[in-house]
Amino acid sequence: MPPFLRLTYRFLAGLWHALDFGRRVFSNLLFLVFIAALLALAIYSLPKRLEDRTALLLNFKGNLVEQHAANVDALVMTGVGEDLDQGDTQLRDVLEVLEAAAHDPKISSAVLLLDNMHAAGLPMLREVAAALERFKASGKPVIAWGSGYDQRQYYLASHANEVFLDPMGHILLEGFGRYRNYYRDALDKLGITVNLMRVGTYKSFAEPFVANGPSPAATEADRSLYAALWNAYTGDVEKARKLPPGSLQRTIDSLPQLMADAHGDTGKLALSTHWADGLKTRDALKQLMIARGAEDSEGKTFRQISFEDYLARQKPGKHGDAVAVIVAEGEIRDGVAPAGSVGGLSTAKLIRNARDDDDIKAVVLRVNSPGGSAYASELIRRELELTRAAGKPVIISMSNLAASGGYWISLSSDEVIADPTTVTGSIGVFALFPTADRMMGKIGVHTDGVTTTWLGDARNPLRPLDPRFGALIQSSINHIYDDFTAKTAVARKTTPQKIDAVAQGRVWTGQQALERGLVDRVGSYGDALQAAAARAKLGPGFRVAYMDPEPTGLERWTQWLGFSAAHLRHQVLQSQSGPAGMLPGAARDIATSLSWLSELADGHSAYLALTHCLCQAP
């Protein structure tokens, strides 16, 4: 090789080696930086060591729910008026935190801050209140403070050792009950006819579409239900606050005079009625907690840990024998539904997964549903029946609502446990078939044609309902009701005739349902877990495995991007708040009610048999 080429080769080879060496050094340095960053992140993510005399802040946010809603649609339709950055609080998380904190020597007290807690059913509130009482029984006080308390917030606050109220705050107890919107006249003006086929004297779901007011039967049932719930609420609060029985109702009845005596000072009124123990600003509360506990000099406040941070410290077991909990929350719909709602196929799949899992020894179905599709309800019931046949006990735990379809899915179990204030029953069936032929006539649209059978165009909503088709639907509804009552009779070990006497679409409290043989006993969610473990012969300290639906691809992306579904909900509600001049709340109520008509009209089947009670959590 010529000297020139040899020198060139050596130069290029040296340059290559230098570049290769530099590349390796750079890669190694980059790798070391990456490792250091991971270590720093891991160290930073480790929870800080709890100090002695730390107060647990129970700063619940949003609605109290059984299961977080996973999809945007569910978030859009749940709870309005909340702060945009707030999510919901799961009951299971509250119970877990209070149980752990009661046995944690570092936690010396709890502070209830409920300003940001919104909707919550009475059975869920009773679960939290019982957990607060267990926390207090461990020798640790609970202090409640609020800038003001609504009825739900005050129920929990009443179970604190001390209730403090901002000097400008108030306590508002309104009782139970509601007014519904009735659309008969409005639909008549639009030319829309809602054809109702139903079984059940008290089945009042469809009354708003076919009448201008409630039927006597609906009024009777509502009056009985709300009176029982109000008696339970006032009794619990009076017992917790050591007030004379009946004093809450007497105070409310005398409120105008009491308010005048207090010269309009709502804080003074709360003290005079013994609903509150003291009036304090939030800063005064801070000083009180510092004096009673320990000061956090760095944060210039009392030593504390938030509900969310303490929850993050809890590490539930992932292996070993377990009781599976499957949540059936929301309306029951055909097909697949995400977390926070009930789908016939998807919820049945969760039950099937629990049955096929060798580590799962028993199943608790936690029901919080007003019902919905009869077919979807039956799919879920069948899976529970197969699970029992496979040798795994099934326990039903009723939350706020387990009515109509929510009761149907509870029919295949070893034991049904309801809270005394659960709304349940409503054993009845109905179908709605809206037609708009008169509306089309008003604008000059006419429908005509030829079919080979009278059924060919029978479900056309632009034509009047054919009486023969109406008779077919009514016959089917009658059959489904007979099936519902027969299955209930088998489950409750009685006769269809006796079930029919307490069915007819009427709702009951859990206590009333017990008296009528519709549930096995009244008790708590914890009682249901213990019953499942006992039937499965599991010892103390058994594992509880929550089987929630897997998030969809879109939901994973929104979680990864930190997408605020609450913000989207706000934007959607802003853009769909109703006609100009109508209050957004009223517009949403109307839109929600009338959405059932469009949903039925858009369905793929000729009609939809519904087991729904139009119930709301008290």
What's the topology here?
Elements: H1 3-45, E1 54-58, E2 64-65, H2 72-77, E3 89-90, H3 91-102, E4 107-113, H4 122-137, E5 142-146, H5 151-157, E6 162-165, H6 184-190, E7 193-199, H7 207-210, H8 216-241, H9 247-253, H10 255-261, H11 266-272, E8 278-279, H12 282-292, E9 295-296, E10 301-302, E11 304-306, H13 307-312, E12 322-329, E13 332-333, E14 342-343, H14 344-356, E15 360-369, E16 371-373, H15 374-389, E17 394-403, H16 405-408, E18 415-418, E19 423-425, E20 429-435, H17 437-442, H18 467-492, H19 496-502, E21 507-509, H20 510-515, E22 521-522, H21 525-535, E23 543-546, H22 553-560, H23 565-575, H24 584-601, E24 610-612
Parallel strand pairs: 1-4, 1-11, 2-3, 4-5, 5-6, 6-8, 12-15, 12-23, 13-14, 15-17, 17-18, 17-19, 18-22
Antiparallel strand pairs: 7-20, 9-10, 16-24, 19-21
Helix pairs in contact: 3-4, 14-15, 18-19
User: Remind me, CATH topology of the largest domain?
Assistant: 2-enoyl-CoA Hydratase, Chain A, domain 1
Helicity range: 40-55%
Radius of gyration: 30 Å
What is the CATH class name of the largest domain? Alpha Beta
Name some characteristics of this structure.
single chain; 618 residues; alpha/beta; 2-enoyl-CoA Hydratase, Chain A, domain 1; 2 domains; 8-stranded mixed sheet; 6-stranded parallel sheet; 24 helices; 24 strands; 46% helix; globular
Summarize, please.
The N and C termini lie far apart (96 Å). With 618 residues, this protein is an alpha/beta fold.
Report on this structure:
This protein has 618 residues and is of the alpha/beta class. The protein is 46% helix and 17% strand. Strands 12, 15, 17, 18, 19, 21, 22 and 23 form an eight-stranded mixed β-sheet that branches. Strands 8-6-5-4-1-11 form a six-stranded parallel β-sheet, sandwiched between helices. Strand 17, helix 16 (405-408) and strand 18 form a beta-alpha-beta unit. Helix 18 crosses helix 19 (496-502). The N and C termini lie far apart (96 Å).
